[in-house]
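Entry 12.
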Amino acid sequence: MSTACIACQPPLTIAPAQVLRGRGVVNQVGNAIAHLGQHPLVIGGNQTLAAIRPQLQTVLEHEPLQIAWMTYGADCSETTLATLHQAIDLHRADVVIGIGGGKAIDTAKLVAHQHHLPIVTVPTSAATCAAWTALSNVYTDQGAFQYDVALTRCPDLLVLDYDVVQTAPRRTLIAGIGDAIAKWYEASVSSGHVQQTLIIAAVQQARVLRDLLFQTSAIALQEPGGEAWQEVVDATVLMAGVIGGLGGAQCRTVAAHAVHNGLTHLLDSHGTLHGEKVAYGILVQLRLEEIVQGNQLAATARQQLLKFYGDIGLPKSLNDLGLADIALTDLQRAAVIACAEQSDIHRLPFAVEPAQLMAAMVSTTAASTTAASTRREEAGVNDFSRSQGSAFTPHSLNDEVMA
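Predicted 3D structure (tokens):
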């Protein structure tokens, strides 16, 4: 390979510079943070900061470090970022510490990136791999996905304290399982044919991750804090991040995340977690493969996932997402957004139209697909699109298109 070809490769952002993990490790981070800066700005949600501030403040002041604390609001939005930029300047911060779930950590990472500052991430749940990755998602103030930002590096320090994570609601770990397992279903579709070494490695790691979660998740949820639980936490927070780091954008997101992004534009979806929407999006992606390609392997995979979801409590349908009474116009809006020109759904090896996506979204629990039923699904959605009714129940629409 020529020097020019090597030079044109995008920079790799594979992993944090340092990962501290174990029970009680928050009590041991003072020295590591002091090596990164003397004026940390700590960013998190109100409840998170209220819970962890007494413990962390003692640790940081022991160095001693001059600390400022800022809440990020509800979303990583332009408004939030503007407020935090002012806080950075006012405090003369030289390191940022992001504490909380995915949105809090994405916010902290992006602020640090924009100010060229070191970033420390402290996840308080296992709901996403945000603490690992060089990526931040930006939303509107109302919680609708806008765009993502590729960062120049992964965090300088990731602090995974199992004691802290264990205090999170059980639901967050279930959502993290849904988000992590999507790595296989998305990466294998978008990158299964690629011959690049690191992408091959990422796809294979995604398969290992899927198998681990299939085998271990139910046990982990029954025994919080146990060995299986810890392995699943590592899988959702760390291993899922490794896959995105090795494979890059091409391995990161496809239709499952595109469906998530579209659903965030519906106010009624805001009661569900990121990983719950993504898990539902996997079923939609597999259903698309059945509808558009007639892929029976996808049908088998979807049935396997439906059983797994039932065992651990992940959503299988719009009804499970609290969208049983969604208006047709809203469903269509989500589908159009998910199929927008820049959407990751176009990493699929076939073209997808909003009507096809709507058909898949309302039939994620269907038993099987035949050529005739596929035509009925698409026709049923198109008929409803032309109707005068303003709302429908997904199950009734499903009955209509599958009859």
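Annotation: The first helix runs from residue 3 to 7. The CA atoms of residues 59 and 157 lie 16 Å apart.
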